[in-house]
Write a structure and sequence with these properties.
mainly beta, 27 strands, globular
Length: 377
């Protein structure tokens, strides 16, 4: 049935619904699905999503009945042992060696390298009513439950062990993770609880008295930044990754949004200007383009560069050139930009006319080979 529907609609990912609004298993034959000539089916196009560990990929459709994995079997490329459990997957998260899937019933299925979070057996009985999962690259997961508690597992040195703060992890609203192995949870009262590698954001003791009325947290490779209710910003973690904001502290007022690269932060202020700090060659030094950064609507980031969409639809980029920081070759095309997306090392901008302009490394930064296919974007 799946093949028939895909050929009829010329779409790869479909959900089939019968006239009585029941879901139809697309893997069954027409006879097994008890469908007869004249019966009506509705095909709903669904968007396929991709998640990745260091050496494996997982493809799924939210709410679908399957997950396709490939790559290094020890890093999540082999999901055969849990494949029959992967029904109704809503979300996938990944560490460097394991995947975690949230199912429609709020349970979680994990696979991949056990020490990187692939083995959740010790906390499996607590993984019920899961709303969100976050992961550190170094091998730990954190799940927020419907009752506001948080559950962690995986590499204990990278945030998998939250026992020291477990009694405080209640009323959790949001969790963010640094790549290097730490978590930060915003609680209902606006305070923040951190755990994991102390050198990369797991220890917030020096700024804990400032972490009140926290609205949002953002994390990069080894530092965490919190936006407070008064529009100011508090940071902690690795000083080289933006943990030291002293040089720009007096400018961080009226902050509306914070974006990050692997080692830098960029804050959009209420007046549309941008303040940056952190590793200079990762976008932390925006001095060469600072005069252009006015009327900024949005900022996107690769691992080592930033791109700002201005109110007039133009784009300003800065940071490491081969990570998208140099857009000079396509600058005259970057007009009426509607949206910018980023990979780890390239930017792609969708223009008002539907065309796409890209810059950065060849792996996504050069879209010339498929430019003719952008007519209907």
């Amino acid at each position: 049935m799946r093949v028939l529907a895909q050929k009829a609609f010329q779409l790869g990912f479909l959900r089939l619904v019968a006239a009585d609004h029941s879901a139809v298993d697309p893997t069954k034959s027409l006879q097994d699905a008890r469908l007869e000539d004249g019966d009506h089916l509705t095909a709903i196009a669904v968007e396929a999503k991709l998640a990745a560990t260091d050496n494996a990929f997982a493809l799924f459709c939210p709410g679908g009945g399957w997950v396709v994995t490939w790559g290094n079997p020890y890093c999540g490329g082999d999901s055969s042992e849990v494949q029959n459990q992967l029904k109704g997957v809503q979300q996938l998260q990944a560490t460097d060696g394991a995947f975690a899937a949230i199912l429609a019933d709020g349970s979680v299925v994990t696979w991949g390298y056990p020490d990187d979070g692939g083995d959740s057996s010790e906390v499996q009985d607590r993984l019920k009513g899961v709303q969100q999962v976050q992961a550190t690259l170094e091998g730990a997961f954190a799940a927020i439950l419907a009752d506001g508690w948080a559950v962690t597992w995986g590499n204990s040195d990278a945030g998998g062990d939250s026992s020291e703060v477990q009694d405080r992890l209640k009323g959790v609203q949001q969790v963010q993770a640094t790549l290097e192995g730490a978590f930060a949870a915003i609680l209902a009262d606006g305070s923040v609880v951190t755990w994991g590698d102390p050198d990369f954001g797991g220890d917030s003791s020096e700024v804990q008295d400032q972490l009140k009325g926290v609205q949002q947290v953002q994390a990069n490779g080894g530092t965490i930044a919190a936006i407070l209710a008064d529009g100011s910003v508090v940071t902690w973690g690795n000083p080289l990754h933006g943990g030291d904001r002293s040089e720009v502290q007096d400018q961080l007022k009226g902050v509306k949004q914070v974006q990050k690269t692997a080692g830098t932060f960029a804050a959009i202020l209420a007046d549309g200007s941008v303040v940056t700090w952190g590793k200079p060659n990762y976008g932390g030094d925006s001095s060469e383009v600072q005069q252009q950064l006015k009327g900024v609507q949005e900022v996107q980031a690769t691992n080592r560069a930033l791109a700002a969409i201005l109110a007039d639809g133009s784009v300003v980029t800065w940071g490491k050139p081969d990570y998208g920081g140099d857009s000079s070759d396509v600058q005259d095309q970057l007009k009426d930009v509607q949206q910018v997306q980023a990979t780890g090392n390239a930017f792609a901008a969708i223009l008002a006319g539907g065309s796409v302009v890209s810059c950065g490394a060849p792996y996504g930064g050069d879209s010339s080979g498929v430019a003719g296919q952008f007519a209907h974007v």
